[in-house]
Amino acid sequence: MKILIVEDEPQTADLLAELITEIKPSAEFVGTTESIEQTVRFLQTNKPDVIFMDIQLADGLSFEIFSRTEVACPVIFCTAYDRYTLQAFKSNGIEYLLKPVREEDVQAAFDKLDKLASAFKNDQQVMQSIQQLFTEKKSYKSTVLIRYRESYIPVPVNQIALFALEDEVLYAYRFDDQKHAVFKTLDEMESSLDPAMFYRINRQVLLNRNAIVEIQPYFNRKMVVKVPLKLSEKLVVSRLKVTPFLSWVEQA
C-alpha cells in the first residue's frame, strides 16, 4: 500500500508515519508534502493508494487540491477542527480524524478502508461508480445572503468582488462598492465557494478573480492586488501564498 502524507507540521507528520507503520508494517511511504502547491505537483506524476491529509495547510485549505488535479484514491483527513466534516466527505474522504491522532483512530481508518476494498474488489460496476463519485464536480454556492437594513437579500456570487474579515465580522464587497455583513465565518465561506472563482489571499480576504485589475510586488516577497474598489487597506497576498496565487490567476 502506497501512502502519501500531506501535513505542514513535520513533527505531526513523523508521528503519523510512526502510527501507520505500527499498524501497517508493509506500508510504503511515497512522500510527504507540506502545501497545496507541492501536493498538486506530486499527484500529477504519482498515484498513491491512500492519502492522509491535513486540512489547514500553510497556503490554504487542502480542499483546493481537488480542484487543481485529479485525486483518484481514498483520503483520510486529519485535522484539529471538526467544522470541515461535510466538505471532507465530498472530497474523497472515507474517514475524519481529529488531532491529536491516536493509534486506535488510525486503526479504525484502516479497518474501514479494508472493508471497502473487500466489499468492492469483485464488483467492477460499483468500483466504477465510486470512481465517478470521486471525480464528480462539486456544487458550490451561486448566491449569498447578505444583511441589508432589517432584511436579508440574495446576491449572486459573481457580483461580489471580495469577502473581508474586519473586527471579527465578515463583509461582502460588491463590485458597485456596496459593503454588507455576512453572518458566516471566512472559513465557511471559502469552503462553500468555487475555488476556481475565489482565492484566499491571506487570513482576512477571499478574492474574486474577476476583481483583479493589477498585481504589484510588495516588501518581504509579498504582492499587492489592485481592485476596482475604494478600500482603506491594501490587499496583500501573504508570502507563502504568492506562488500558488499567481498560478491560480493564470488558470482558465
UniProtKB/TrEMBL annotation:
Gene3D superfamilies: 3.40.50.2300, LytTr DNA-binding domain. GO terms for molecular function: DNA binding; phosphorelay response regulator activity. The keyword Phosphoprotein applies. Coiled coil: none annotated. SUPFAM superfamilies: CheY-like. The modification 4-aspartylphosphate is found at residue 54. The keyword Phosphoprotein applies. Residues 2-114 form the Response regulatory domain. Keywords: Phosphoprotein. Pfam families: LytTR, Response_reg. This is LytTR family two component transcriptional regulator. It comes from Mangrovibacterium diazotrophicum. The lineage of its organism: Bacteria, Pseudomonadati, Bacteroidota, Bacteroidia, Marinilabiliales.
